[in-house]
Amino acid sequence: MPPETYVTTHIHTEGPIPGPHSLLTVTAAAHTAAGDLIGSTTVNVRELPGATLHPVALQQWRRRAEDWLSSRRASRPPAPAMTALTRWIDDLPGRKVFVADTAEPDYLFLYWYLQRFTGRWPFTRTTTEAGLHARLTPTELCPLTGCRSLARTG
Q: I need a labelling partner for 47 at 20 to 30 A (CA). Which of 20, 55, 58, 100 fits?
């Protein structure tokens, strides 16, 4: 049986659920079972037509205006962005395992976006093992300044 590759994500959104609110940025990191980084990718995603910025998200983004602008630079329409993410996942070695934190919206947004724009979920399984997620979360790989400062202090 091929080894498993663990994929964790860190996302930024316009609100709490996909559809009415958009996924803006996704950073994904792939690790071996031992925790060694295999690779990472980041993509900025254009807003969905008709989606709105949730009032709570608006307040958060106002405090991080530079990060908002960074998340909009070189953004790609959702279909090509999700296709690129799926290709990156497909090119990883072994069986791909999505590592989810049930307290974060990553799984909800990624499942919705990948199904909506590529028609599939590219992982063989999903795990919610908290220790694994905490050890492999790619916050330090996030291109937004606010994420990197949280990774250093949090």
A: 100
